[in-house]
Amino acid sequence: MIEGALKGTANLDPRPTLEGAANAEHRLRGTLTHPICISVDAVADSALRAHQAASGATELRCDVCDAAIEGEPAGRGLYVWSRGDELRFEEPALCGGCAVAIGMTALSAWNVEEEEG
User: Fold this and answer.
1) What is the pLDDT of residues 4-39, one digit of tens each?
2) Displacement of CA 45 from its chain's centroid (Å)
3) d(CA 5, CA 11)
4) How far apart are CA 113 and CA 37, in angstroms?
5) Which residues neighbour 108 within 8 Å (Cβ) at sequence distance 6 or greater?
6) What is the spatial distance between Cα 106 and Cα 100, in angstroms, rounded to a whole number?
7) CA 38 to CA 108: how far, in whole Å?
8) What is the 3-state secondary structure (H, E, C) of 42-64?
9) φ and ψ of 81, to 5 deg
10) Are 84 and 105 in contact (CB under 8 A)?
């Protein structure tokens, strides 16, 4: 609602007010303390299960901790290796906890490399 609309003096200035900026900062700070979870709806989950059953695929498991993954994996790893002249790639599934841990470890290693030069 536009500020002042109830009083009949609406603020039409598109720039954020100090109160609005403080509220946005509080909302942003509050959301960063909790992990973001995205759930798969029932239709997508049943379609994934049907596809796995039709292709004979086994249950998805995290490549790091071997936990069962329901629905879509939260992330994927990347293995790269060569055999002779052939370059091979593999993208194993990761659970939410392992995906976050690996991502944060990579980010901190990248930051250390940037600071060292």
Assistant:
1) 444 555 555 555 555 555 555 555 455 444 444 444
2) 18
3) 8
4) 30
5) none
6) 10
7) 25
8) HHHHHHHHHHHHHHCCCCCECCC
9) -150, 165
10) no
